[in-house]
Design goal:
With 280 residues, the chain is of the alpha/beta class. The chain folds into 2 domains: 102 residues, Orthogonal Bundle (434 Repressor (Amino-terminal Domain)); 139 residues, no CATH class. It is built from 12 helices and 6 strands. It has a 6-stranded mixed sheet with strand order 3-2-1-4-5-6, sandwiched between helices. Helix 1 runs antiparallel to helix 5 and helix 7 crosses helix 8. The longest helix is centred in the C-terminal third of the chain and has 17 residues. Pfam families: DUF5753, HTH_31. One of its GO terms (molecular function) is DNA binding.
Length: 280
C-alpha cells in the first residue's frame, strides 16, 4: 500500500488550507490549470478560482479531484471543514478530520449510531437533521459526510474495524426503505477485505465505554490518537496513557464481541426483520 499523504503543518484556516492543498497537488504533478480541466472534463477556470479561494466548488468536483490525485477522502475532508460555519467545527474536530484522512488504520466503537464512514445518504441525512441542519446546509453536509466513505475504498484503503453496540443495529431510521438500504450497505461493506464488522451483544452488561463512542487512528509515525464523543461533546485524545486506557477498554469489548462471521449473521437477521414497504 503506498504511503498516505501527510497534510498537517500548513495553514490552519480551513478555506486557505483547502486552496493550498489543491494548488500543491497540481503543481507537484506539473499540471497547468488548463491541462487539469481537460483531464477531468471541467472548465479550467473553476480550478483556478478554487486555488485562489474565490470558490470552494461542489462535492462532486472535489471527489473527482480526490480520485484523480489518488488522495481518497483527503480533499473532501478539507472541503467539509471549509464549507461549514467556522463555529460549527471546534479546533479539535478540525484536527481529527485531517488526521482521519491520513491515518494508516482506524478502529471505531459505536455506542448508539453508525460511524460516518459507513453511513448511507439516508442515514446521514436523518442524523444530521436531528442535529439542526436543514435546507442547503443539510444537503452539503450529507454530501460531505457520505463522500468521505471513499477513504475506505480502493486498493490503498486503510484497514477499518467497526465494533458496534447491538443497540446500533436495533435502532432503525424513520423511513423503512432507508433503513433497509443502510443495513444492506453495511453488509456489503463488511465483505471488503479492509473492513471488519463486530457486534457487541447487549448481554455483556456495563463496560469501559458504556456511554462513549471512540475512533482510534494509527498515524504514519506509529502513534495512535483517539477521538471520543458523547451526546454533548467530542474530544481529541493524544496523551499516551489516556489513549492506552481507552484501548484497553476497547480490547476488552472486542474479546467478548461476536466474531466477524457471527456479526454478519446478526446484521442479516436485522435486515430480514425489516418489514417490506407497503406491508401491514
Amino acid at each position: 500500500m503506498p504511503p498516505r499523504r501527510v497534510i498537517t503543518g500548513r495553514s490552519q484556516e480551513p478555506r486557505r488550507r483547502f486552496a493550498e492543498e489543491l494548488r500543491l497537488l497540481r503543481t507537484e504533478q506539473g499540471l497547468s490549470l488548463r491541462k487539469l480541466g481537460e483531464a477531468l472534463g471541467w472548465d479550467w477556470s473553476l480550478f483556478g478560482k478554487m486555488e485562489s479561494g474565490q470558490t470552494l466548488g461542489s462535492p462532486e468536483v472535489v471527489q473527482g479531484l480526490d480520485q484523480y490525485y489518488g488522495t481518497p477522502g483527503l480533499l473532501l475532508a478539507l472541503w467539509e471543514l471549509a464549507v461549514g460555519d467556522p463555529s460549527q467545527f471546534k479546533e479539535q474536530y478540525r484536527r481529527y478530520m485531517l488526521l482521519e484522512a491520513e491515518a494508516m488504520s482506524l478502529w471505531h466503537f459505536g455506542v448508539s449510531i453508525l460511524p460516518g464512514l459507513l453511513q448511507t445518504d439516508g442515514y446521514a441525512r436523518e442524523v444530521l437533521a436531528l442535529g439542526g441542519a436543514k435546507g442547503k446546509e443539510l444537503d452539503q453536509a450529507v454530501e460531505a459526510r457520505t463522500g468521505r466513505r471513499k477513504l475506505l475504498e480502493g486498493d490503498d484503503a486503510p484497514p477499518f474495524r467497526a465494533l458496534l453496540s447491538e443497540a446500533v443495529l436495533r435502532t432503525p431510521l424513520g423511513d423503512v426503505g432507508e433503513w433497509r438500504e443502510q443495513l444492506e450497505f453495511l453488509l456489503d461493506a463488511s465483505e471488503r477485505p479492509n473492513i471488519t464488522l463486530q457486534v457487541l451483544p447487549q448481554g455483556v452488561g456495563l463496560h469501559g465505554l458504556v456511554s462513549t463512542a471512540v475512533m482510534f487512528l494509527r498515524l504514519l509515525d506509529g502513534k495512535t490518537v483517539a477521538y471520543t464523543e458523547n451526546a454533548h461533546r467530542g474530544e481529541l485524545v493524544e496523551e499516551n496513557s489516556s489513549v492506552e486506557r481507552l484501548q484497553r477498554a476497547y480490547d476488552a469489548m472486542r474479546d467478548v464481541a461476536m466474531s466477524p462471521v457471527e456479526s454478519r449473521k446478526f446484521a442479516l437477521r436485522m435486515l430480514e426483520e425489516v418489514p417490506c414497504e407497503g406491508s401491514t
